[in-house]
Predict the structure of Spore maturation protein.
Amino acid sequence: MKYFIISIVPILIGLIVIYGMIKGVKIYECFIEGARDGLKLCVNIYPYLLAMLLAVGVFRGSGALGYFINFIRPIVKFIGLPPEVVPLVMVKPLSGSGAQGVFMDILNQYGADTYIGLVASIIIGSTETIFYTLTVYFGSVNIKKIRHTVWAAIMADLTAVIAAVIIAKAIFTN
């Protein structure tokens, strides 16, 4: 079984090549064209990605994230979200790797089998890195007007956070 699992990707690549040969596709030329298009896409996306990563670093490094978390702490307590999870909710739309770091800090400090750990686990799995995703996808096709998409994505993330609280309470209190 182990060897079968290891062999899945090479077998899949071989089947794709065989299928292309049967259909008369110039496989190598198609591969080169795809690689060229992929490289162009990377070059087009890079400035947007760099700007977004720089903004995240400045936001966290300047302490602005900490001030904002303290400002909204009463609101999150009202909806039942543990204040310890607020940094995760704030960082996740900006940076997936930053959110993973915050998530691991939460689990190390509070444990995975606590209410805080459960809420954090649900949030990390059900929310999106909104601004990274928008930067990559809209930047790659040069779309500049994204305001409706941003608000819809933020509303979806807030819904996921509220659902995480409801689900965690339902699971943890039973």
User: Anything to note?
Assistant: The first helix runs from residue 2 to 23. The helical segments are 2-23, 27-61, 64-79, 86-91, 96-110, 115-126, 130-140, 147-172. The chain has one domain: 42-172. The chain has a mean pLDDT of 86.
